[in-house]
Amino acid sequence: MNTNVHILRGGGTALVFLRSGNAPAALVYWGDDHAGLDNQEQWRLLAGKATPSARLNRNSLQNLAPDLTRGGLSTSVLLAHRDGFGFAQQFVFKQIEEQAYSIAFVYIDEAAGLSLRQNFSWDAANRCLSCSSELVNTGSDVWQIDKFSCPALPMDTNWQESLTLTGRWGREFQQQRQHLSRNAMLIEHREGRSGPQHNPSLVVGTPGFSDNHGEVFGIHLGWSGNYQIRAEHLADCNAYILAGEWFYPGEVRLEKGASIQTPVLYAVRSIQGLNLMSQCFHGHFRDHVLPQWVRSSRPVLSNSWEAVYFDHRKETLLNLIDAAAETGAEQFVLDDGWFKGRRDDKSALGDWTVCPEVYPQGLAPLVGHVLKKGMRFGLWVEPEMVSPDSELASEHPEWVLKVEPYENIQARNQWVLDLSHKDVYEHIRSRLIALLDDYNISYLKWDMNRPLLMPGDGNGRAVAREQVKAVYRLMKDLCDHQPGLEIESCSSGGARIDAGILRYTGRVWSSDNNDPVERVAIQRGLGLFFPPEIMGAHIGPNKAHLTGRQIPLNYRILVALQGQLGFELDLRDVSGDERVKLQLAVKLYQTHRQWIGAAKVWRFERSDVDFCVYVSETKKQALVWALTTGSMARAEAPECKVPGLEESANYQVSSLFPHDHSVWLDYANSYPQWLKQSGKTVCSAAMLANTGLPMPVFPPQTGILLYLEQEQ
Ligand code: DGJ
To answer: For 119, which DSSP code?
Structure first.
């Protein structure tokens, strides 16, 4: 049997694809690039595997497009039929398209009338693989597609531990470890958005993998709707990760000549634990997914939500805008409550006309005030939704997603509009465009506050995936209409954060939970896949609204500085001293935000102290956070070891925040010598990486932010 070897290489890594006979290609190597990889003969030997007893007579290589007819019983990338017939297919190699950093394999099943294309592209700079599949109906019958997955990526048999990101409203991105046993592990999400129960991400690796050690393989599915990720170690020693959309019965029909594409699946392999993996995902999403505007200095944002909720009054808001400007905000976002009939969360979604009682002259005076204060104006919208109590719902009850004759259950007192319907889409699009045209809006906070429960169109057909595609299209339409428009992805906090929506939205509202004690874990989980500059992180009030916990301002500032800084509190209420501190936080953020947009991130935990390190691309600067949430595991704090610096350089270390160190003396007899001296401490990168800096004795919910600058 003839074998063919194709190598995707770059950045010191090679991925070897092996084709044997007419079977789909297998990914047989992913690791350091060596000249020896080009020796075809060694790969040919691999193709003929031993055949165990009591199995199929013919054993073949685990490939990227398993089908039912070659034994891909649980791992088949396609489950489809023609009105109940033709349930099994066989994909036969037809052609290959190779370019410098990409390979596409095309397979056909002539009998079935299907053509399958699998695309692989390698980002050499960030060592990230993107892959996707396309299926075309080349026959004359309609194909009913029950499942269509991205290429089935092989797992090593040693990868027996998994890490997933789970959560709920107000507690997103919690890391969960599980042993990967011989049962399939399934992450399935059917809310019509990518969270908050699970994020479409999975890490598998050698048992005990940690922040900086162990072999890990991370995948992320760039899709904001229903999905399924399945990881399985099979009895025959093969192991796969299968990821793709999850479809409702009857949702996808492929007419003659029609095609369907999977979302993009991103994959990174690291032999140095999670941090290296995160750095690769961050780099790839920065360079190839996030909108261009994310690379500009991200403005300090002040949001009206927790300051006034629905109690919009013109005078209050003008004062809030003044206070925001005085505190240093650069963008003011008018959150929910600005439109006609919206005095609580029970009504008016979908109408999108400015409330005449609160804003008799429209939003113009308010927007004008924001601009006069030197800030940009942002507006909250929730375009996919409609309140039953709204003009739109009473005029067009048929525009709502539902399944008759069943009760259309409300969530947060709202229904979902059928954006796959062209009239609905056009109506919402024109309303949003009118707002953009009427006011100087730089920024939309795009919310989505309920799961899709019964995403049926007027004919009773499931349209969940069409809905997601319509949302993407609408975002793109608005950005095309107003180049430079910035959109934030919010979904009851962080329920829609994925590389699908991030193509259109370059900032995310990480969570409605602004309690920094809870935020440490949320931001850590979010940071596993997504870079810090997109992470909305706001300084909340003294008493956190979601938890009731009272937290000193220093700690609130410390934690919020890890992301894109903002305010989520009534800035009219803060004392003079507090405002000075907030202004200082703004200055700190502004000084460093530009390089943070390209920084490498390391996170690790030692002795219950949470460390987070951002190192600039040039390695000239670094920020280091040491934070506690509870009390430390030991009497003394662990040393702070700083990775990623220029090995041969010296660094000036200074404490950036908080300024008052005497607070440590309430909890210990003294604090570290180097913090006592005035001015900067100079340390070598080697000392910082290997020995580390002694830290103060941290009581719970405290921490320190250090700044490291390379000596010239
Ligand atoms: C949920 C969001 O997460 C909040 O920030 C806020 O915008 C509310 N929706 C408004 O209804």
So the answer is: E
Report d(CA 254, CA 149) in Å as an integer. 15
pLDDT at 604: 96
Exposed e or buried b per residue across 108-119, where buried means at least 16 C-beta atoms within 10 angstroms of its C-beta: bbeebbbbbbbb
Kindly state if the Cβ of 488 falls inside 6 Å of ligand 1.
Answer: no
Beta bridge partners of 132: 119
For CA atoms 506, 507, 511, 517, the dihedral sign is: positive
State the amino acid at position 466 in one-letter form. Answer: E
pLDDT in tens, 655-694: 999 988 888 888 899 989 998 887 789 999 999 999 999 9
What does pLDDT average to over the chain? 96
pLDDT of the residue at 665? 86
- Determine the angle formed by the axes of helices 516-527 and 553-560, rounding to 10 degrees: 10
Is the CB of residue 664 less than 8 Å from the CB of residue 701?
no
- Annotation says 33 is catalytic: no
Q: Is 398 helix (H, G, I), strand (E, B) or coil?
A: helix
Q: Is the pLDDT of residue 630 over 80?
A: yes
pLDDT per residue over 290-342, tens digit each? 999 999 999 999 999 999 999 999 999 999 999 999 999 999 999 999 999 99
**In this predicted model, what pLDDT tens digit does every residue of 434-467 receive, in sequence order?**
999 999 999 999 999 999 999 999 999 999 999 9
Catalytic annotation on 287? no
- The ligand 1 atom at the shortest distance from the C-alpha of residue 445 is 7
Catalytic residue among 351, 418, 447, 610: 447
Report the residue among 449, 491, 497 best suited for mutation to probe ligand 1: largest number of ligand atoms under 8 A from its CB.
Answer: 449
Number of the ligand 1 atom closest to the C-alpha atom of 412: 11
Q: Give the integer Cα–Cα distance in Å for 595 and 617.
A: 7
Q: What is the pLDDT of residue 660?
A: 86
* Tally of CB atoms within 10 A around 504: 21
In the chain, the percentage of residues whose pLDDT exceeds 70 is 100
Q: What is the DSSP string of 568-583?
A: -S-TTS--HHHHHHHH
Element (H or E) spanning 434, and its range?
Answer: helix 422-438
98-126 mean pLDDT: 98
DSSP H helical segments within 33-155, as ranges?
A: 40-47
Terminal CA-CA length for the chain: 61
| CA angle (253, 258, 259) in 5-degree steps | 85
- Rounded CA gap, 495 and 510, in Å? 8
Closest of 546, 552, 559, 550 to residue 578, by C-alpha: 552
Q: What 3-state DSSP class applies to 695? A: coil
